[in-house]
Amino acid sequence: MANTDDPLSITFAALADPTRRAILTRLARGEATVGELGEPFEMSAPAISKHLRVLESAGLIAREVDARWRICRLRAEPMHDAHDWLEAYRRHWEGNLDRLVEFVERTHRAEAKKPASGAPRAPRKKP
Amino acid sequence: MANTDDPLSITFAALADPTRRAILTRLARGEATVGELGEPFEMSAPAISKHLRVLESAGLIAREVDARWRICRLRAEPMHDAHDWLEAYRRHWEGNLDRLVEFVERTHRAEAKKPASGAPRAPRKKP
DNA sequence: CTATCGATTAACCAAGTGGTTAATTGAAGG
DNA sequence: CCTTCAATTAACCACTTGGTTAATCGATAG
User: Which of A67, A103, B21, B54 is the most exposed place for a label (fewest CB within 10 A)?
Assistant: First the structure.
């Protein structure tokens, strides 16, 4: 995941870590300092700092300096695009559509060796 | 992202790549062979094969052997959990709640040096 | 001024990622 | 039998990631 990646990839990559997701969950309850955010984890302070930098550069948190504390707060906007992207696949998981398509195809396989309906794969030439 | 990661992390990590997301988008239109999936990308066949392996071990696609072709189809179920996780943050991005909270806090900062409402951060002892 | 505290940066490491080319497997066809 | 084709595996590469410890920075307290 280079820094040249698109925003959606950066968002998903930032979310692909349980520590970072837990930090976001904590921040959903309200702002917190870096020390407070790191307290639940058996992890060094620099490790937390790195996680926060990933979240910040993904635009998922904002940091503000208050004396010698850094106050972190959630910026959930990037999640909106990720949510929207997933939304397009809702019909595929709802009603077990995946399994239905698979069932129909598997059922018809013995009768006719061609893909089930709704699967417009270009026919492979198999003379 | 080690193979010991939790399912949600594996799902998000699999989605954190534009090539893999494009493959999933293509599969949403119907099943396809590995060759068909790789055709739009200026990328070697082994590279596509690796992406497909990531998607398969994340449970996002299934492969089936048909003669010398591997038919890939979408398995969207893991996206459901990812979608649900993001759903919990909807109120934070809807109505620009983030900016609202920030505005309220920033407005009251000069009057009273304490966190804005809805931010139950443990008070740092600053005698 | 000095010590301390919250947090970050620096330097390093093991492991993973995303890509390559070359070799391999397995099925189809002349 | 031999070739060809779809796809994967093997071996390798540059780069990233997630973690560490040690050093640094800035602000506060004494």
Answer: A67
